């Protein structure tokens, strides 16, 4: 826990900008409508998640002997709406979330361990705010990423009344990170669901009877998206290369059918957000059509149509089409590759092309990507988890390709920043975007197949 404690610097950090409110960070001036932060301040607390006994992929298998097991526990951060006022710490200078990396694909590191940080407006251990039970999101990062780079989504959702449990998988500790992630991502996420259940059920805990067991979403990027789909019910194909790549048939636990005695929180997963999810490429064959039928929760997939890590036509899109058991949406960044989820590369690494190309996009502005993610993730979760009808207008545009939308205006009319309303008559511009500003995106929807 001492290591996790270094993540949160609750003191003032000498930042030279203006004070920030403890709610989510402000959106860019050209952000779509739901990218604006909510009205609630944001708190964050450390959580230690017990995963339990897992097979060790590091120890060599011995013929005739059971595989060695290790008792796994992972660190996490829980973001939530906080009861704060400016006088009680609701406004202060900027904070940061800090993470130490000892190894990473961006080798060689400038220093080891390398300290990377992202800005944060969450107040550590702030009192829980809001009323009633909070819808819940489990957040899972990609291979060899780190949790704070997705903190912008967690803080945004917390400011709008969600509890978000973000997991730190620490892939860099494994000698073969890909093998480790294929096996451990779903186990870590299932453990997070159990821990949330415990927090909700335990008297004396700050979240006792405050978490909504029937309104749970899994949100994962890349390998975290693979884990989210498997945790939600997808089964790994036993005849794929990914299955053979992990030794000792460790993936059998993710290939076998789920029994009727599913864990209560796993069975209640009501929504999945998968950003550039890995595993559907034919060359890897982890996620195939038969196994994907097990995902019965509505799903939002976000992808770049030039994704060269998870693949697009053979990968993200093909697996989206194969999830026939539930309604699903596909939001596409045209001319984007795989890097459509994380904050920018840390300043200490921005001089390295390897670091830059692992996080940034060659065509898209980074702040624009983050705002669009905030907007559509919020619309999807508000619609699916909360049952709100209003956000449906953002999820069902009049035209699937944003470039084809029209919002008539007199020649030379000034730009006002007004958001487009619901489509009607000649207005087919995407709702929630400013005039002329819905470009480079596609949004498709498929219903569940008729049984």
Describe the SSE topology.
Elements: H1 2-5, E1 8-9, E2 20-21, E3 41-55, E4 69-82, H2 86-90, E5 91-92, E6 95-101, E7 114-120, E8 123-124, E9 134-140, H3 151-159, E10 163-168, H4 177-201, E11 211-221, H5 223-231, H6 241-245, H7 252-255, H8 264-267, E12 269-275, H9 289-292, E13 299-304, H10 312-322, E14 328-333, H11 353-359, H12 366-384, H13 392-395, E15 441-446
Parallel strand pairs: 3-8, 9-10, 9-11, 11-12, 12-13, 13-14
Antiparallel strand pairs: 1-6, 2-5, 3-4, 4-10, 6-7, 14-15
Quick recap of the structure?
By secondary structure, the chain is of the alpha/beta class. It contains 13 helices and 15 strands.
Textual characterization of the structure:
Helices cover 24% and strands 22% of the residues. Helix 3 packs across helix 12 and helix 4 packs across helix 5. Helix 10 links the parallel strand 13 and strand 14. The N terminus is likely disordered. It is built from 13 helices and 15 strands. The protein is globular, with a radius of gyration of 21 Å. By secondary structure, it is α/β, with parallel strands linked by helices. The chain has a ten-stranded mixed β-sheet with strand order 8-3-4-10-9-11-12-13-14-15, with helices on both faces. A three-stranded antiparallel β-sheet has the order 1-6-7, covered by helices on one side.
Summary keywords:
ten-stranded mixed sheet; globular; alpha/beta; 15 strands
Largest sheet: 10 strands, mixed
Number of helices: 13
Strand content: 15-25%
Sheet/helix structural class? alpha/beta
Succession of helices and strands: HEEEEHEEEEEHEHEHHHHEHEHEHHHE
Strand order of the largest sheet: 8-3-4-10-9-11-12-13-14-15
Mean of residue pLDDT values? 87
Let me know the number of strands: 15
Q: What is the rounded Rg?
A: 21 Å
General shape = globular
**Roughly what percent helix?**
10-25%
**What is the first-to-last residue Cα distance?**
49 Å
Extract low-pLDDT stretches.
Answer: 1-22, 86-93
């Amino acid at each position: 826990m001492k290591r996790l404690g270094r993540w949160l610097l609750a003191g003032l950090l000498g930042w030279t900008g203006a004070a920030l409110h403890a709610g989510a960070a402000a959106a860019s001036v050209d952000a779509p409508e739901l990218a604006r932060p909510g009205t609630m301040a944001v708190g964050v607390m450390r959580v230690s998640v017990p995963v339990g006994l897992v097979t060790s992929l590091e120890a060599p298998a011995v013929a005739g002997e059971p595989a060695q097991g290790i008792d796994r526990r992972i660190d996490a951060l829980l973001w939530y709406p906080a009861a704060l006022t400016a006088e009680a710490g609701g406004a202060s200078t900027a904070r940061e979330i800090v993470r130490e990396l000892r190894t990473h694909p961006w080798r060689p590191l400038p220093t080891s361990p390398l300290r990377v940080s992202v800005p944060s407006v969450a107040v550590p251990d702030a009192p829980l705010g809001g009323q009633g039970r909070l819808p819940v999101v489990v957040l899972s990062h990609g291979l060899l990423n780190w949790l704070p780079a997705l903190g912008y989504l967690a803080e945004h959702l917390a400011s709008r009344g969600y509890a978000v449990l973000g997991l730190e998988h620490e892939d860099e500790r494994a000698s073969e990170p890909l093998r480790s992630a294929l096996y451990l991502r779903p186990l870590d996420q299932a453990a997070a669901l159990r821990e949330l259940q415990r927090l909700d059920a335990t008297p004396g805990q700050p979240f006792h009877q405050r978490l909504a067991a029937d309104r749970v979403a899994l949100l994962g990027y890349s390998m975290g998206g693979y884990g989210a789909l498997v945790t939600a019910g997808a089964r790994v194909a036993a005849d794929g290369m990914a299955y053979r790549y992990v030794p000792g048939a460790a993936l059998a636990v993710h290939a076998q059918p789920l029994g009727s005695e599913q864990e209560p929180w796993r069975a209640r997963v009501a929504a999945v957000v998968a950003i550039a999810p890995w595993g559907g490429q034919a060359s890897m064959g982890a996620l195939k059509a038969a196994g994907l039928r097990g995902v019965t929760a509505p799903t939002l997939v976000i992808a770049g149509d030039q994704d060269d890590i998870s693949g697009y036509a053979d990968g993200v899109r093909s697996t989206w089409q194969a999830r026939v058991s539930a309604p699903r949406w596909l939001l596409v960044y045209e001319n984007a590759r795989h890097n459509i989820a994380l904050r920018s590369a840390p300043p200490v690494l921005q001089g390295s092309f390897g670091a830059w190309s692992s996080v940034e996009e060659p065509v898209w502005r980074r702040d624009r990507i983050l705002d669009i993610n905030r907007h559509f993730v919020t619309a999807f979760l508000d619609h699916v988890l909360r049952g709100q009808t209003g956000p449906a207008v953002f999820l069902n545009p009049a035209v699937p390709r944003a470039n084809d939308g029209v919002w008539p205006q007199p020649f030379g009319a000034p730009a006002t920043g007004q958001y487009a309303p619901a489509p009607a008559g000649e207005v087919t511009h995407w709702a929630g975007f400013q005039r002329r500003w819905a470009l480079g995106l596609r949004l498709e929807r498929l219903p569940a197949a008729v049984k």
